[in-house]
Design goal:
mainly beta, three-stranded antiparallel beta sheet
Length: 109
Protein backbone atom coordinates (compact mmCIF):
# COMPACT_ATOMS: atom_id res chain seq x y z
CA UNK A 1 0.00 0.00 0.00
CA UNK A 2 1.42 3.35 -1.02
CA UNK A 3 1.23 5.97 1.70
CA UNK A 4 2.70 8.85 -0.29
CA UNK A 5 0.57 11.52 -1.92
CA UNK A 6 1.02 14.32 -4.42
CA UNK A 7 2.71 17.45 -2.98
CA UNK A 8 4.39 15.48 -0.14
CA UNK A 9 7.97 16.54 0.62
CA UNK A 10 10.25 13.53 0.25
CA UNK A 11 13.95 12.71 0.41
CA UNK A 12 15.69 10.25 -1.92
CA UNK A 13 17.32 7.59 0.27
CA UNK A 14 19.05 5.45 -2.37
CA UNK A 15 20.19 5.52 -5.97
CA UNK A 16 22.02 8.09 -8.07
CA UNK A 17 20.17 11.05 -6.52
CA UNK A 18 20.59 10.02 -2.87
CA UNK A 19 20.20 12.92 -0.46
CA UNK A 20 18.13 15.18 -2.73
CA UNK A 21 14.80 16.51 -1.51
CA UNK A 22 11.75 17.64 -3.43
CA UNK A 23 8.00 17.68 -3.79
CA UNK A 24 6.10 14.82 -5.44
CA UNK A 25 4.65 16.02 -8.74
CA UNK A 26 3.05 12.80 -9.94
CA UNK A 27 2.57 9.21 -8.74
CA UNK A 28 2.28 6.17 -11.02
CA UNK A 29 0.69 3.68 -8.62
CA UNK A 30 0.52 0.77 -11.08
CA UNK A 31 4.27 1.05 -11.78
CA UNK A 32 5.33 2.04 -8.21
CA UNK A 33 7.11 5.14 -9.48
CA UNK A 34 7.07 8.84 -8.58
CA UNK A 35 8.21 12.05 -10.25
CA UNK A 36 9.94 14.43 -7.82
CA UNK A 37 10.55 18.10 -8.51
CA UNK A 38 14.21 18.72 -9.39
CA UNK A 39 15.29 15.06 -9.09
CA UNK A 40 16.40 12.71 -11.92
CA UNK A 41 16.50 15.40 -14.61
CA UNK A 42 16.80 14.04 -18.16
CA UNK A 43 17.35 15.82 -21.47
CA UNK A 44 15.06 15.26 -24.44
CA UNK A 45 15.83 16.33 -28.01
CA UNK A 46 12.72 17.82 -29.58
CA UNK A 47 11.95 18.53 -33.21
CA UNK A 48 10.62 21.92 -34.20
CA UNK A 49 6.81 21.98 -34.18
CA UNK A 50 4.03 24.58 -34.00
CA UNK A 51 4.14 24.79 -30.23
CA UNK A 52 7.95 24.98 -30.13
CA UNK A 53 9.19 26.34 -33.50
CA UNK A 54 12.81 26.45 -32.35
CA UNK A 55 13.07 22.81 -31.26
CA UNK A 56 16.18 21.99 -29.24
CA UNK A 57 16.93 20.22 -25.98
CA UNK A 58 14.40 20.28 -23.14
CA UNK A 59 14.93 19.10 -19.56
CA UNK A 60 12.33 17.33 -17.48
CA UNK A 61 12.04 15.06 -14.46
CA UNK A 62 11.95 11.30 -14.98
CA UNK A 63 10.23 8.86 -12.61
CA UNK A 64 12.14 6.95 -9.92
CA UNK A 65 11.06 3.95 -7.87
CA UNK A 66 8.85 4.75 -4.90
CA UNK A 67 10.95 2.52 -2.64
CA UNK A 68 13.88 4.93 -3.08
CA UNK A 69 12.07 7.84 -1.40
CA UNK A 70 11.00 8.56 2.17
CA UNK A 71 8.50 11.11 3.44
CA UNK A 72 9.95 14.04 5.39
CA UNK A 73 8.20 14.31 8.76
CA UNK A 74 6.92 17.91 9.02
CA UNK A 75 7.63 18.18 12.77
CA UNK A 76 11.04 16.46 12.95
CA UNK A 77 12.04 17.72 9.47
CA UNK A 78 13.76 14.38 8.86
CA UNK A 79 12.83 11.33 6.76
CA UNK A 80 10.40 9.10 8.62
CA UNK A 81 8.39 5.97 8.07
CA UNK A 82 4.63 6.41 7.83
CA UNK A 83 1.95 4.70 9.90
CA UNK A 84 -1.84 4.81 9.78
CA UNK A 85 -4.16 5.72 12.66
CA UNK A 86 -7.93 5.61 12.85
CA UNK A 87 -9.13 8.89 14.35
CA UNK A 88 -12.68 9.80 15.27
CA UNK A 89 -13.71 13.41 14.58
CA UNK A 90 -16.29 15.49 16.51
CA UNK A 91 -19.16 14.16 14.37
CA UNK A 92 -18.32 10.55 15.22
CA UNK A 93 -16.91 9.77 11.78
CA UNK A 94 -13.83 7.58 11.65
CA UNK A 95 -10.96 8.55 9.36
CA UNK A 96 -7.68 6.89 8.49
CA UNK A 97 -4.89 9.42 8.96
CA UNK A 98 -1.16 9.17 8.23
CA UNK A 99 1.36 9.87 10.97
CA UNK A 100 5.15 10.08 11.07
CA UNK A 101 6.62 7.32 13.17
CA UNK A 102 9.62 9.46 14.16
CA UNK A 103 7.59 12.23 15.84
CA UNK A 104 4.17 10.60 16.19
CA UNK A 105 2.63 13.74 14.63
CA UNK A 106 -0.33 13.41 12.26
CA UNK A 107 0.52 14.38 8.68
CA UNK A 108 -2.08 16.69 7.14
CA UNK A 109 -1.99 16.75 3.36
Amino acid sequence: MLRLKKNDRVKVISGNHKGKEGKILKIFREKNRVIIEGVNIIKRHTRPNQKNPQGGITQKEAPINISNVMLIDPKANEPSRIGMQIIEDENGKKKRMRYGKKSGEIIVS
